[in-house]
Amino acid sequence: MTAPALSALSALLGDRFSTARPVCAAHAQSETHIRTGLPDAVVFPETSAEVAAILRICAAHRLPVIGWGAGTSLEGHALPLHGGVSVDFVRMNRVLSVSPEDMLVRVQPGITREDLNRELRATGLFFPVDPGANASLGGMAATRASGTTAVRYGTMRDAVLGLEVALADGRLIRTGTAAPKSSAGYDLTALFVGSEGTLGLITELTLRLHGQPEAVSAAVCAFASMGAAVDCVIETIQSGLPMARIEFLDPAAVAACNAHAQQNLPLAPHLLVEFHGSPAGVAEQAARFGEIAESHDCTGFRWAEKPEERSALWRMRHAAYPACLASRPGATAIVTDVCVPISKLAEAVEETRADIAESGIPGPILGHVGDGNFHAILLIDSESRAEAATAKALASRMAERALRLGGTVSGEHGIGMGKLAYMQAEHGDAWAVMGTLKHALDPDNILNPGKLVPPHDAG
Amino acid sequence: MTAPALSALSALLGDRFSTARPVCAAHAQSETHIRTGLPDAVVFPETSAEVAAILRICAAHRLPVIGWGAGTSLEGHALPLHGGVSVDFVRMNRVLSVSPEDMLVRVQPGITREDLNRELRATGLFFPVDPGANASLGGMAATRASGTTAVRYGTMRDAVLGLEVALADGRLIRTGTAAPKSSAGYDLTALFVGSEGTLGLITELTLRLHGQPEAVSAAVCAFASMGAAVDCVIETIQSGLPMARIEFLDPAAVAACNAHAQQNLPLAPHLLVEFHGSPAGVAEQAARFGEIAESHDCTGFRWAEKPEERSALWRMRHAAYPACLASRPGATAIVTDVCVPISKLAEAVEETRADIAESGIPGPILGHVGDGNFHAILLIDSESRAEAATAKALASRMAERALRLGGTVSGEHGIGMGKLAYMQAEHGDAWAVMGTLKHALDPDNILNPGKLVPPHDAG
After folding, report:
1. What value of ipTM does the predicted structure carry?
2. How many domains does chain A fold into?
3. Does B87 score more than 80 pLDDT?
């Protein structure tokens, strides 16, 4: 079925269709250790109508279709597990319209987060979801991404107001409206957000924007224990203080950041916080946070009120991943991602720390602690099968621990190929329901096959 | 198929099964002018397992199943269009657990909003979604309800973290976890929220709570025009001021409230606002709102800082519906509900006002203006077919106007039977997708048949 489909795609797209090996290989690369074969072809559509036409061709020939954004997935979402066509959205990267009064923007899926915010700068508005990587908005929606600012501004679930989606049969549908809320029928927007390209390809997004904060303040402080840091976070949240970010670094992550960013933080659990608001509001929030932190015996409390101090602080946090990588030269990282109820966070992190310590593998921990979400960066010798197996077992126990504590195996990185093994345990019969929905919308299983839902014959 | 199903239900539930005419008639009543026949029976389950067993019996005999909460729907959601069994959740009205550290509560679907907040009072937490009526939480989730506080705290889409749902085949599934976010698979929680009992019956909810605000302030002010009031709202939102409520009353609504609540507000467009926060934060927000309102030439600005003044103000707003009803003695109300982008709100309201004025029917307008959501309370002589037809035409033009302006035909009241005629116009092919999903999860169409999705044979 492949050859006639590829001919039709070539005829449709001309030089925006490629079967060149380097192009295909670039679309089988991943930020992770996960590897697959190559796609049969890569296409570069420029319009929604072209995406729909691509899907009609692939549907007619039952050829797999995999969306490709910026390639920053950490779970192998966009890898062609069964060959097929990789649909690269790099040429669909425009801002279609900005509506400042409604604080909305319509974009094509290939635009990256940083490019979007660059284009928005003059409007006084910004798009807040920040997963760290300069991901594409389509990819961020498809994986329900979040990051450091979710505690204040929410995740992609909250940020996406509406979508245009190309379905498996080539129909283009619109979900949601430009009104801020609706109770008119099933929430298809929410169904497609996080569906990882298995129900349709996102061809357009309407996103909620926020006003650039008038004032920002940030601080860093150390705690005697993870438990004390988490208790501080819980009390801060309960007091209603609207933190814009509240990030956790464990002592191993602090050590890596110290070395990488020429800092000199004590080797203790740390919180990094940021407040957004009016000058007076931020000052009040900062003062109240300081009181709460002190009541939990924080030490080394330091405000970074000047923009350059703040930048240095967040540069350090955003560079934590390369800093951790650099802490074990030549190592490969397996980045885990679990999320638990905040009341269980100290327990989850402490158990994970002990488990990592026992394993002998370095594994700094950092997290979006306001969401109960944390990552261990497991640093393994990429040549060592034994270390890979150890890391896999650690990651597996983290996932099981998260479920035991009432949480989820994926806070923000999605399922892709890396987390499929835990779906049954997390969702029970609800996983089969996901399979039923997938089968209803994509009966021939051409959309990102092998991902997210139970194997097709088991559905 | 009905008699053997009813025997089985009777055997299962004993005296919690009824075919008594008054009981059945009570479950065919509605807050609206919409009327249907009676259900064949009413059941009163006490556990999720019983709900599942009811569904297995009804599935085996293909008997329709309609969930029943508090009966406050404004669109006839819970009416038995094709007979069947009304599942009344009144006996499933317990708080199952409160987790203050995680700011979560697990409840059964039959508990009402006011009962829940009464039970939470000692915890310092509250459940913010407030549709006015003392609805059940299961019903509020099923219709994706919102209300006066959505501008700050969101709608049921945001408030529901997880569900237990009994499916058409009697399987019980859990959606979501107790973690604050997740990227693990399809967002089934969001799919069931707003599905109006057509995909499953909600048997348990995990809800997000908020801290009771330390300080509250409220104000009322008048504007020369609807446009000036909306511009004030837009500027307030863009400035990032976290309003807890911002409500609009048109001059006709003000007149009704004046008469009903012994107020003496000028007959002009009014905004009622409320801020929640720390004492200093609320004071700052209030001052900034005052400046913004003055720059839009507001008049009669009055703060209600004392609890009793504030209560009087919101009592007046919450009684606006009976006040409007009382303004035309003996009248029946048709309550409309549309939502548009905020930039189009003044246009939508002004056109609607002119249309109503021309019709000769009284129709005060009030709205949750921070969400672009407003209602006209069309007051008709219930004996007059001509007035009913006029009101229906007005409501129809409101829906068309909302769609033309990029909005939705239902901001918060759902689809039920009242809005089904607009679904194709709002959603296009996405409505057929809703039908596909419904058919996949409920192939025999036993769950609230005749509601929300396209007619089954057209699916």
Report:
1. 0.96
2. 5
3. yes
